[in-house]
Design brief:
Blueprint: H1 3-7, H2 9-28, H3 31-41, H4 45-50, H5 52-59, H6 67-85, H7 87-115, H8 131-144, H9 162-183, H10 192-216
Helix pairs in contact: 2-6, 6-7, 6-8, 6-9, 7-8, 7-10, 8-9, 8-10
Length: 231
């Protein structure tokens, strides 16, 4: 098994799945099938009611436009995030951001529809893409860097040392700045995607803060040398 897959399974699998699903969508489906595919995977009020788990998972891997651009953003967000917190904790961070961003934005939409402030047709809104996951990874990388505060048995790597961590942060900041105009478009009108992105960013930063505090308190397991037993 390649070293990069053993060390970084989360970003490798995420990027591979994103490329595979988006390639099938872009090059393997006709226009009608594309519309049907997006409608069945979108995190809208209809799908979240009938199949919440499947919808939340599938929607993160469907990119309707420019899927290859998302790969670059995923690299500068997910790889340093995993090196900083580990695969499982990085997965917890981006999953929480994706789920909370989706549920709060769609919940707000449901309230607006119920009050008459938004049309009922928005229940079937086409809302797919990896942006909640990637936005959360980017903000966590910007705030917390790529270098772990506590070294594990696997040690570090020059690509993620203290100096390189600044470059990963800069790359993540540039990525977020490039995405920002699209992430927050319509926020003043409580657009579902804009609200979801805002919540995902706050959630990513908040979960990252919790993980960093746990790390400083020594909750993260660090393998210590075995004691020498006198004969």
């Amino acid at each position: 098994m390649p070293v990069i897959l053993r060390r970084f399974p989360l970003p490798v699998v995420f990027i591979a799945a994103l490329c595979a699903v988006s390639s099938v969508y872009a090059y393997g489906l006709g226009l009608a099938d594309q519309r049907s595919f997006v409608a069945s995977t979108a995190t809208n009020l209809i799908n979240l009611r009938s199949d919440p788990l499947g919808t939340l998972i599938a929607s993160a891997f469907v990119s309707e436009t420019a899927p290859w651009i998302w790969v670059g953003f995923a690299i500068v967000g997910l790889f340093p995030l995993v090196h900083r917190f580990g695969n499982l904790r990085a997965l917890l961070l981006v999953t929480t951001a994706h789920v909370v961003g989706t549920l709060l934005s769609e919940g707000l939409l449901a309230l607006r529809i119920a009050s008459g402030a938004a049309p009922a047709s928005l229940r079937a809104l086409d809302d797919v893409g990896p942006s909640y996951v990637i936005a959360a990874a980017l903000i966590a990388t910007i705030v917390y860097g790529a270098e772990p505060a506590v070294r594990t048995a696997s040690g570090g790597h020059w690509l993620f040392d203290r100096i390189a961590s600044r470059w990963w942060r800069l790359g993540a900041a540039i990525g977020l700045a490039l995405l920002a105009p699209n992430l927050f478009a319509g926020l003043g009108h409580l657009d579902v995607a804009a609200v979801g992105h805002s919540v995902a960013l706050v959630t990513g930063a908040g979960v990252g803060l919790t993980l960093a505090r746990l790390e400083r308190r020594g909750v993260r397991v660090v393998r210590s040398p075995r004691p020498v037993v006198a004969p």
